[in-house]
From TrEMBL:
NCBIfam families: xanthine_xdhA. Binds 1 Mo-molybdopterin (Mo-MPT) cofactor per subunit. Binds 2 [2Fe-2S] clusters. It comes from Polypedilum vanderplanki (Sleeping chironomid midge). Mo-molybdopterin binds at Q766, F797, R911, A1078. The active site is at E1260 (proton acceptor). Residues 230-412 form the FAD-binding PCMH-type domain. It is found in: Peroxisome. Its EC number is 1.17.1.4. InterPro entries: 2Fe-2S-bd, 2Fe-2S-bd_dom_sf, 2Fe-2S_ferredoxin-like_sf, 2Fe-2S_ferredoxin-type, 2Fe2S_fd_BS, Ald_Oxase/Xan_DH_a/b, Ald_Oxase/Xan_DH_a/b_sf, Ald_Oxase/xanthine_DH-like. This is Xanthine dehydrogenase.
Length: 1331
């Protein structure tokens, strides 16, 4: 008789946890953060897509007597699933107060932690790897990181830090280019190449790791006992240990019983789809469901076997058949490591997703399933065309349990291949999957049997039986291609409005993936049967891309030998919070412990894009236990309810008419997050829908939906005269989509009522002063009663400059009304739905130029998609107009700018602030001219590049213009000319893989274009012990601002860096601060701190003079006793700037940051997949205050820009619904997406007299350089188009997704769908649109 336990027992960081009332609804993440107060593990997405919540789980395997360690996503792991297991969090491996674990030390000291919010999860992924392999390979490191995302660093420094643990570390990653092999330094004597010294790292000794809890090894009671947990809502968690228990449970509850292994699907359904499952059964301890057995008929896999277990088992087999090899290959790209570690093959099959990675393989292989029920016993189901019966449905009965899957053996004359195409190779859901199974007559190329299976082409995974029947008996030759193509076109239709979009691409993929299979199988048949089918050029289409071992170099100016060793300026100092971030000790807004009497707030959001509110009924919500209040527009005056960063054209709570989905209608306040979120869904809203619903820029143009005051014009010179005198005039159009900020920490705020009418706000914001000012306005109290504080942000990128008000203001209002602390941290889907994105843009231009390529004039129309309110869209448009020419002189311009009003969330600031979108015009023009004149691109760039003393189209004189130096140096360092020739040879030899290389320049203006924002203050205190405390107006969000400020202060005061500390940014310390934005944080705040430090330094001058043999501490002490003030306020206002649009004169920018980049890519013409082979960057950062931080900013900006230009696609419905509301559908670059070789060089000998210590701003300028990847892709596509006799100059929408790449590589396959019977779809709306 199996005992049943109602207590949950597990270990966390070596300490035993006994939970007497386990709650089946609680995840491990919630338990760690709320119950155990371990806040190092972060919430990034709640769907297992970002890795911020990664922890290690350890389990003793009694069969092998080995402790298995594996990384998991705590956000999905049910705490009830941990019985008898050991959990290790980031706090459990090291701390700054005791000792650091080598993983923590190395990621920090290698500069791999910027904002730090992702760092604990990345640390735990690496730690889990080391616990399984103390000397891993780089391949193992690659796999370990597949489930982790970072938005700040660009990944390179993380890889470099962790590379020191690997087997390959002893060899230089630059290979033959290694400077030591070449018997020379990495560059001239003025250049350094070491951002960190690995010899200083504490050696890793795996024998010193904490031991696995002995109790879990010695006692098998926890494995043998069944578990039964039930909470107060009647939610049941049952862990049987015998099969009959599970069958009885399933018989009793049927479809209501969810069998959960990893919870990777059900967890998402419960969190985001709000499914209310009542009965959970966990089969992890049932032998029959967890066995892997090789039988005479094939590999028998228990349904609860995890994907990692399956992968390791197949990997260890001596002889794998083609089906197993296909599974192994597919599992490499299946989700992330954390998901594979817990997700089961049975769960994947039973979910029956039409875009499953494995189901096409199992269906094509005709796998056999063993199912069993309590009443009817066992039966075998063969996977065939009848297995999947509908969307996420199959033929297994409600009372049956899947026991095992038999993956059949193959025979000698059988060929099996499978493919998956996604937006991102690593950790992404499929767009289309395919599996092909061909059996040939013995020793022939005659097809005896075939299976064609596709995922992503219907509501289920489907077979193509007609095509299979058609090819039976046919010879495997080139004629087969067209037979199959035409049959698949007819057999697999896809409606124009099919869910998932990209209809033409998906249809093309069915043929493209078959063609790849044809190439692969033909290649194999040629070897086995000595026949000839393919030519050499075609073989490039056989394989896909594999992640290359990363290489990199970082070059920067050496510190002068005259500089004191204790002077930190210009040195690569570690981010001041990096160690705390790596140990989980760094505190973010939601990490702050819960206050006494604290309440939680949930937003009630509009679900319509354009509608009149007829009624709001909160009565049902207010009846729920634990709910305290509902607030809406009725609780505020009309004036108090009006908000906005510049123009008060928004409502905090919508009163009458919603103009976008995701607008706030009201808020529910109650005991905790679960209570208020469930109550918020009970608030009933009655709407009257209005039209039109305007989503896209094209919609807005059609309906003339423009904000008041637009269009606006900038005119310089005589464009019409320039066109008349030009030898050529061309027209063009550029279209860019938006981009989600995807900071790892979502918006968060806590408001705490203080004495009487005072209130304190702790907010995740880039602009504390704005939050405080608006809060005072909403509450109707003076600004001096409101204090806003920000310690650090888990990323910002502009997204937390103005839109944080949507979180902070409701929280503050509720706290003030209820006189209790109130908290809110947005869920990822809420954040993405309501806070806006980078602005989509449309540019239409006409350009005149001479025969030599010199540009004479440009007529430009600019449209940005502002969303439902102004926000900062007018300034974003201004910067796009200022930057449209990029680094090229265009003497005559006429620009019309339009802010388009749409029924979209209000779009907002994002790194670059319109500049990168505008720069695309200049780069497109340069390329279009080169194509037209058939001249070398670099020749056209060279003749048009700005020179010292040139004047821009907004009449600013250029001084210290280094763009030409960057341009020339990057060509040399990248071997641009040589590699371009090599690429031409590669393209000649390969038909289905093409390479491209491109060069891009950037010239980014530094300053707020709103003059009044170019100011800030600082407060510096010196204490009697000599320690220094600084407060300034800037916010630390990963960019290393505080670290640079420390360096500035230490150098100015001439004291060690360690004596200085920076606390939070607070409006009661420094008032009226500007947002930390526009890349001006170091310039402004550095200037203010420099000013304050100089004041104090000068006050201490008499003591230095009178007591020259004493030190700082003694001077301070003496000054104190002489009653000399040791505190000073500093102030800085950027001098000599200001622009008058009415006369088009002045200086909108303080100076410019320049740079150039060369990128090389390879594309797969059949799938649209691509790989960035190499990127070289030369950046002018003046005299870098901190080369490690500046290079980190360059790399991080580049990878974020790569996302903008190539990877990241916002998916909206025609009615304004955002589909891409999390990492499941919205893909930012991952570890595997960075350039395989990534070289960054800081320009030497550059100074900048207009900023602190001759430095330059760096946060935004490098982002545009990632367009070099976009243009390299375009070059590669052009090479493919030439094969078909098409023009190599064509319009490519941005981002250049796999879909757009494939469809631009026109060939016989895409031509079948080019027309796609457009006449039939005139009245049919597509599933998604480009905003």
């Amino acid at each position: 008789m199996t005992s049943i336990n109602s207590n949950l027992i597990f270990f966390v960081n070596g300490k035993k946890v006994i939970e007497t009332k386990p709650n089946p609804e609680i995840t491990l993440l919630r338990y760690l953060r709320e119950k155990l107060k371990l806040s190092g593990t972060k919430l990034g997405c709640a769907e297992g897509g970002c890795g911020a919540c990664t922890v290690m789980v350890s389990k003793f395997n009694r069969d092998t007597n080995v402790v298995n360690h594996f990384s998991v996503n705590a956000c999905l792991m049910p705490v009830c699933a941990l019985h008898g297991l050991a959990v290790t969090t980031v706090e459990g491996i090291g701390s700054t107060r005791t000792r650091l674990h080598p993983v923590q030390e190395r990621i920090a000291k290698a500069h791999g932690s910027q904002c730090g919010f992702c760092t604990p999860g990345i640390v735990m992924s690496m730690y889990s790897l080391l616990r399984n392999s103390s000397k891993p390979s780089m391949k193992e490191l690659e796999i370990a990181m597949q489930g982790n995302l970072c938005r700040c660093t660009g990944y390179r420094p993380i890889i470099e830090g962790f590379r020191t643990f690997t087997k390959e570390y002893e060899t230089c990653d630059m290979g033959d280019a290694c400077c030591k092999k070449n018997k020379q330094g990495c560059n001239a004597t003025l250049v350094d190449d070491k951002l960190f010294n690995s010899s200083e790292f504490v050696p890793y000794d795996h024998s010193q790791e904490p031991i696995f809890p002995p109790e879990l090894k010695l006692v098998d009671q926890y494995d043998k006992e069944s578990l039964y947990f039930e909470n107060d809502r009647g939610i049941i968690w049952f862990r049987p240990t015998q099969l009959h228990q599970l069958l009885e449970f399933k018989q009793q509850h049927k479809t209501a019983a969810k069998i959960v292994v990893g919870n990777t699907e059900v967890g998402v359904e419960v969190k985001f789809k709000h499914f209310d499952y009542k009965f959970f059964a966990n089969p992890s301890h049932i032998r029959e469901l967890n066995e892997l057995t090789v039988t005479e008929n094939g590999l028998k896999v228990g349904a609860a076997v995890t994907l990692t277990q399956l992968k390791n088992f197949i990997d260890a087999k001596l002889n794998c058949n083609p089906i197993e090899i296909s599974i192994l290959d597919m599992l490499h790209w299946f989700a992330g490591t954390q998901v594979r570690n817990v997700a089961s093959i049975g769960g994947n099959l039973m979910t029956s997703s039409p875009i499953s990675d494995l189901n096409p393989i199992l269906l094509a292989a005709n796998a056999e399933l063993e199912v069993q029920s309590f009443d009817n016993g066992k039966r075998i189901i063969k996977m065939d065309e009848n297995f999947f019966t509908g969307y996420r449905k199959n033929s297994i009965k409600d009372n049956e349990v899947l026991i095992s899957i038999l993956i059949p053996n193959t025979i000698d004359n059988q060929h099996f291949v499978a493919y998956k195409q996604a937006k991102r190779r690593e950790d992404d859901i499929a767009i289309v999957t395919a599996a092909f199974n061909f059996i040939f007559k013995t020793d022939t190329n005659i097809i005896e049997k075939a299976n064609f299976v596709f995922g992503g082409m219907a509501p289920t995974t489907i077979l193509a039986p007609k095509t299979a029947a058609l090819v039976k008996g046919k010879e495997w030759n080139r004629e087969l291609i067209e037979i199959v193509n035409q049959s698949l076109v007819d057999e697999i239709p896809l409606s124009f409005d099919a869910p998932g979009g990209s209809v033409l691409y998906r249809k093309s993929l069915t043929l493209s993936l078959f063609f790849k299979a044809f190439l692969k199988i033909s290649n194999d048949l040629e070897k086995s049967q000595n026949i000839s089918i393919l030519n050499e050029r075609e073989r490039s289409g056989i394989g896909g891309f594999k992640t290359l071992v990363p290489k990199s170099s970082q070059l920067f100016e050496k510190v002068s030998s005259d500089q004191s060793l204790t002077d930190p300026i210009y040195r690569p100092k570690v981010h001041m919070s990096a160690l705390k971030q790596a140990t989980g000790e760094a505190i973010y807004c939601d990490d702050i412990p819960k206050y006494e009497n604290e309440l939680y707030l949930a937003l009630v959001l509009s679900t319509k894009a354009h509608a009149k509110i007829l009624a709001i009924d909160e009565s049902e919500a207010l009846k729920q236990p634990g709910v305290y209040a509902f607030f809406s527009a009725k609780d505020l005056t009309s004036n108090q309810n009006k908000i906005g960063p510049v123009f008060h054209d928004e409502e905090l709570f919508i009163r009458e008419t919603v103009t976008s989905q995701g607008q706030i209608l009201g808020v529910i306040v109650g005991e905790d997050q679960n209570v208020v979120q469930k109550a918020a869904r009970l608030v009933k809203i009655q709407y009257e829908e209005l039209s039109p619903i305007i989503v896209t820029i094209e919609d807005a143009i059609k309906h003339n939906s423009v904000f008041p005051g637009y269009p606006k014009f900038l005119i310089n010179g005589d464009v019409d005269k320039a066109f008349n005198e030009a030898d050529h005039v061309l027209e063009g159009e550029i279209r860019l989509g938006g981009q989600e900020h995807f900071y790892l920490e979502t918006h968060a705020a806590i408001a705490i009522p203080k004495d009487g009418d005072e209130i304190e706000i702790i907010a995740s914001t880039q602009h504390p002063s704005e939050i405080a000012k608006l809060a005072a306005h909403v509450l109707g109290i003076p600004n001096n009663r409101v204090v806003c504080k920000t310690k650090r942000l888990g990323g910002g990128f502009g997204g937390k400059e103005s839109r944080g008000a949507l979180v902070s203001l409701p929280v503050t209002f509720a706290a003030y009304k209820l006189n209790r602390p109130v908290r809110l941290m947005l869920d990822r889907d809420e954040d993405m739905m309501i806070t806006g994105t980078r602005h989509p843009f449309l540019f239409k231009y006409k350009v005149g130029f001479m025969n030599n390529g010199k540009i004479m004039g440009c007529d430009l129309k600019v449209y940005n998609n502002a969303g439902y309110s102004f926000d900062l869209s007018f300034s974003v448009l201004d910067r796009a107009i200022f930057h449209f020419q990029n680094a090229y002189k265009i003497p005559n311009v006429r620009i019309e700018g339009n802010c388009m009003k749409t029924n979209m969330p209000s779009n907002t600031a994002f790194r670059g602030f319109g500049g990168p979108q505008g720069m695309m015009v200049g780069e497109n023009i340069i390329r279009q001219i080169a194509k037209k004149l058939n001249k070398d691109l670099t020749e056209i760039m060279d003749i048009n590049l700005y020179n010292e003393g040139d004047i821009t189209h907004y009449n600013q004189l250029l001084s210290n213009c280094n763009v030409r130096r960057c341009f020339e140096e990057v060509q040399k360092s990248s071997n641009f000319a040589k590699r371009r020739n090599e690429i031409a040879i590669f393209n000649e030899k390969n038909r289905w893989k093409k390479r491209g290389i491109s060069i891009v320049n950037t010239m980014f203006g530094i300053a707020f274009t709103a003059l009044h924002l170019n100011q800030t203050g600082a407060l510096v205190h010196v204490y009697v012990d000599g320690s220094v405390l600084i407060s300034h107006g800037g916010v630390e969000m990963g960019q290393g601002l505080h670290t640079k400020i420390l360096q500035v202060a230490a150098t100015t005061l001439k004291i060690p860096l360690e004596k200085i500390h920076i606390q939070e940014t607070a409006t009661d310390k420094v008032p009226n601060t500007s947002p930390t934005a526009a890349s001006a944080g170091s310039d402004l705040n550095g200037g203010a701190v420099l000013n304050a430090c100089k004041i104090i330094y000068d006050r201490l001058a008499p003591y230095r003079e009178n007591y020259p043999n004493e030190k700082w501490e003694q001077w301070v002490y003496k000054a104190y006793f002489d009653r000399v003030s040791l505190s000073a306020t500093g102030f800085y206002a950027t001098p000599d700037i200001g622009y008058d649009p009415s006369t088009n004169s002045g200086h909108p920018f303080n100076y410019f940051t320049y740079g150039s980049a060369v990128s090389e890519v390879e594309i797969d013409c059949l799938t649209g997949d691509h790989q960035v082979i190499r990127t070289d960057i030369v950046m002018d950062v003046g005299s870098s205050l901190n080369p490690a931080i500046d290079i980190g900013q360059i790399e991080g900006a580049f990878i974020q820009g790569y996302g903008l230009f190539v990877l990241e696609e916002l998916i909206y419905s025609p009615t304004g619904t955002l589909y891409s509301k999390g990492p499941g559908m919205y893909k930012i670059p991952g570890f595997g997406d960075i350039p395989a070789e990534f070289n960054v060089s800081l320009l030497t000998g550059s100074s900048n007299p207009r900023a602190v210590y001759s430095s330059k701003a760096i946060g935004e300028p490098p982002l545009f350089l990632a367009s070099s990847v976009f243009f390299a892709i375009k070059e590669a596509i052009g090479a493919a188009r030439i094969e078909e006799g098409l023009e190599s100059d064509f319009q490519l929408l941005c981002p250049a997704t796999s879909s757009r790449i494939r469809m631009a590589c026109k060939d016989n396959i895409t031509k079948k769908f080019d027309e796609y019977e457009e006449s039939k779809h005139k009245n049919m709306k597509p599933w998604n649109v480009m905003p």
